[in-house]
């Protein structure tokens, strides 16, 4: 019995220590991967579509291509027959999201309109902001998730692509689920940003 209690105490202390360490040392970096402090703190296009979020991530990448070569890949994002999410398709499809990332521009999705919808599993995302080639944003039908992209020219022919997620967590299960979701989403989103960058740079080179 004493041995069991000692083990339980050890596991509890370890769990608390790991949680505190994550929150103090890792969480902010995970939530703002690639973004500058100014970008993470800034108000960005689409923020007003979800006020007072329970959480927010801001992740970014610099792409050696103009915004006009970046926006097409965002405009066509979504499950088949759209362009996919440019991340780990096999993980997405384990979750039955039907994502198949393409490496060509799909002309039929290059004129997005407000109110268009895309399905992300149980989330039905509604296009709420379109400003080609500067910004695009979707909000979930239940109003609890906003996913927005800001695309800006750095003045040297390159693009700063910022992905921002804002979300509400109305239930305890949502709050608990966000604990593993934060680092997991970084793995997926980092891959997505890098793959969009590769595609945009290739498209820019092809355009001369």
Topology:
Blueprint (H helix, E strand, L loop, with lengths): L1 H30 L5 H5 L13 E9 L3 H9 L13 H6 L22 E4 L2 E9 L3 E6 L4 E9 L5 E9 L4 H35 L2
Antiparallel strand pairs: 1-6, 2-3, 3-4, 4-5, 5-6
Helix pairs in contact: 3-5
Percent of residues in helical segments?
Answer: 40-55%
Strand order of the largest sheet: 1-6-5-4-3-2
Low-confidence stretches: 10-25
Q: What is the overall pLDDT average?
A: 89
Q: What is the approximate shape? A: globular
Short description:
This protein has 208 residues and is α+β, with helices and mostly antiparallel strands. The chain contains five helices and six strands. A six-stranded antiparallel beta sheet has the order 1-6-5-4-3-2, covered by helices on one side.
Structural summary, described in words:
This protein is α+β, with helices and mostly antiparallel strands and 208 residues long. It contains five helices and six strands. It has helices at residues 2-31, 37-41, 67-75, 89-94, 172-206; strands at 55-63, 117-120, 123-131, 135-140, 145-153, 159-167. The protein has a six-stranded antiparallel β-sheet, covered by helices on one side. α3 packs across α5 (172-206). It is globular, with a radius of gyration of 19 Å.
Features:
208 residues, 5 helices, six-stranded antiparallel β-sheet, globular, alpha+beta, 6 strands
